[in-house]
Amino acid sequence: MNVVFAALLASENLNDGVKASNPILPETHEIVWSVVAFVLVFAVLAWKAWPAISKSLSDREAKIRADLDAAEGARVEAESSLETYKQQLADARGDAGRIIDEARQAADDVRRELIARAEADSADLRTRAQEDIRQATERAMVDLQARLADLSIELAQRIVERNLDRDTQIALIESYINEVASTQK
Amino acid sequence: MLLAAFQFPHIDELFRWEGLFFGDTAYEINKTSLLVLISSVMILLIFVGGSRRMRLIPTKLQSILEMTFEFIDHGITRDVVGKDAGRFTPFLGSLFLFILFLNFWEIVPFIQFPPTARFAIPLYLAIQTYLIYWYLGFRHNGYRYLTGHLFPAGVPKALYILVTPIELVQIVIVRPFSLAVRLLANMMAGHILLTALALLTTYALENAPIIAIGPFLLNVGVTGFEVLVGFLQAYIFTLLTAVYIADSIHPDH
Which domain holds residue B55? Predict the structure, then answer.
């Protein structure tokens, strides 16, 4: 560095005797063009560039803010919808459980009713069948008694060749049958 | 001994340029003025052209423009001047870009000269800042702006003998002077250093190539450093301008 400064100092005397002018002093024409250039830059940038850039940034900021607000609104709405759907799902599950219970209860009722009805029908059928059997038995017994009486009469007539009146024969036969029945018991 | 024979060019050759157009007039255009005008055109092309069709999903250029705007608007204007001071962003943004583009000419190959190393430009910008903060100070606070600085509240009256002249010198001379000289000195020093290293490299290559690597590597390193300096000086100038404007609007803070 010392060499540089030494050279700088030396150069004062090595400039072919030209008296060194002061490089610090400002030149008028340089001031003039500086003023022109700066005023031009300031005026045109203030007129065209800065407002456009500022507006662009403001627009983007507004857009981002609006998008964020919209996203926040959508998020709140989605959460609200989710809560509604959850509530509806819970309600639906409750309804479904209730419906299933009711259906199960109804099915049980129907089953019990059907069983009861079937049992009643069965008992009724059995009673009626027993009654029919009894009546048929009675009719058969009556027919058998009548037939037996006829056969007995005929047989007796043939055997004893004695003709009894009918009422006597019947009384005789019934007496015989009752006797037979009592001996069978 | 070898380096003792090295002749550094006259300082004028580093900073003074012959007129290219309108020679010897008040509107002469030399290399400095030409770079200033080219910088203006570049700024306008990039920022006006890039902001013509702003999209919701930004392109790379649009992202750069928006980052620059945010850097100025939030990083400087609203942080320093105030939350509702967005109206100063166009001025502070233009100031920052103007200085930044001018500073970066220092490292552009075949140009390698920052116009801000000429006193005319920092001086003009500092005077402009000076006028603006005085105007804003009086507009917002009337004469209290001046009396508030010269006779600060809470200071014993006896001390006004010391404080008042110091404050007067500070707001009238020191502020604009330091603003201009800080930028000028940094860019001028950088330019001299880079030139010296480049010339030393050339000289060493011609006379003792083995030692040329030293100044060459140093030159590369300093060039990278000057990128930082160029940005930092633009930022500092703009930031201090914002501080002075904030002081003018809210002198009590």
Answer: 3-249
- For residue range B206-218, what is the model confidence (pLDDT) as tens digits? 888 888 899 999 9
User: H or E stretch including A79?
Assistant: helix A50-160
| Coil vs helix vs strand at B82 | coil
ipTM: 0.91
- Taking the C-alpha atoms of residue B56 and residue B63, their distance in angstroms, rounded to an integer, is 11
What angle (nearest 5°) sits at the alpha carbon of residue B8, between those of residues B3 and B11? 155
**Residue ranges per structural domain of chain A:** 31-184
CB A37 within 8 A of CB B37: yes
B196 CB neighbours in chain A (<8 A) are: 4, 7-8
Is B71 near chain A, with CB under 8 Å? no
- Residue whose structure tokens are 């003998």: B161
> For the segment B66-117, what is each residue's pLDDT rounded down to a tens digit?
999 999 999 999 999 998 889 999 999 999 999 999 999 999 998 989 999 9
Contact between B48 and A48 using a beta-carbon 8 Å cutoff: yes
- In SS3 terms, B206-222 reads as HHCHHHCHHHHHHHHHH
Count structural domains, chain B.
Answer: 1
Report d(CA A153, CA A166) in Å as an integer.
Answer: 9
Using an 8 Å Cβ cutoff, are B82 and B249 in contact?
Answer: yes
Shortest distance between the Cα of A68 and any Cα of chain B, in A, equals: 16
The interface residues of chain A toward chain B in range 14-73, judged by CB-CB distance below 8 A, are 14-15, 18, 20-21, 23-38, 40-42, 44-46, 48-50, 52-57, 59-60, 63
Burial group, residue B48, by CB count within 10 angstroms (0-12, 13-18, 19+):
middle
A74 touches chain B (CB under 8 A): no
| pLDDT-based confidence at residue B1 (cuts at 50, 70, 90) | low
Q: What is the pTM (predicted TM-score) of this model?
A: 0.74
